Amino acid sequence: MTTADTAPTPALRPYRVPADGLYEGPRILRRTPDGRPGRPYELFETVPLGATLGAEVRGLDLSRPLSAVLRAELNRALLEWKVLFFREQHLTSAAQRRFAAHWGELETNPLLARGDAKEVVRFDKAAGGAPTFENVWHADVTFRARPAMGAVLQLREVPEAGGDTLWADMAAAYDNLPPEIRTRIDGARAVHDYLPGFARFCPPEQLAPFQAEFPPVEHPVVRRHPETGRRTLFVNASFTTRITGLPEAESDHLLGLLCRQAHVPEFQVRWRWRAGDVAFWDNRATQHYAAFDYVSRRRVAERVAIAGDRPH
N or C, which terminus of the chain has less Cβ within 10 Å? Predict the structure, then answer.
């Protein structure tokens, strides 16, 4: 008879990482759905950093309580700029959680959670450590039926050089696809799976027990943003494994092309961290990439994710 102590680790289900591809086309750079600039902000200053996404917010102390009016104005800025940056806030973990909780229930991820504060994921990369979450464009936890709405990331320790994070605007990525590709993917669905993203740095015996909790899920290839209504490309190289209903080779080619849209510099913003900086991004509209170019230094970050809705 098999007991819990002697039960074999279940085998991992098969998975694939699609091939690459890239369409080079014209650059349509709209920050908002209608292409018009947003209204001025009354409670803080915004400093634009990218053509379609990314703004530094000045004049706020995030450790202080947010009024309903300030929360609403920050949310308007988040929808307009998709990722907001706040210099040298030096929040406690509790204050970081309180700030994020203004946008909804905080998410826990059993694949990453450590310690007592399960909502806070700590990324502590020691000098000379192997790559883990770096060097790949992705949106967070799209392998869940309800992927994260957004995330609040703070850098506790920053290397002297390197360690930047980049974000890509996936609405701009969709806008710049050729019309025939947009027509082809509107209404299409794709499979998302945690295994490809985590298999790079977790052994099979650590991943296998989560298969029942995180079975593969389907999401639309193009989702409509629940607040702006804007069409946004919603596939990523970490977790999207195939486009439903297509032969394998055709799916790999199309999915590779779509994932590579995040690589276009005009759709990106890059942030050079200082200790205590905070970034708040809309996971429904962006992908991000942590550059692992600080191999002789240490980088420590803490992230709090906000639970999201089911993509449509």
Answer: N
Identify the active-site residue in 144, 223, 225, 303.
303
| 138 is an active site residue | yes
| Domains along the chain with CATH numbers | 45-306 (3.60.130.10)
Q: What is the pLDDT of residues 14-50, one digit of tens each?
A: 776 665 545 565 689 999 998 887 889 999 999 999 9
The one catalytic residue in 140, 169, 175, 282 is: 140
- Whether the Cβ atoms of residue 174 and residue 233 lie closer than 8 Å to each other: yes
pLDDT at position 130 is 58
Helices (H) and strands (E) in the chain, counts: 7, 15
Conformational region of residue 88, where left means phi above 0, alpha means psi within -120 to 50, and beta covers everything else: left
The Cα angle at residue 78 between residues 312 and 28, in degrees rounded to 5: 70
**Cross-strand bridge partners of residue 268:** 168
**Token pair in block for residue 252:** 């790999």
Q: What is the pLDDT of residues 48-98, one digit of tens each?
A: 999 999 999 999 999 999 999 999 999 999 999 999 999 999 999 999 999
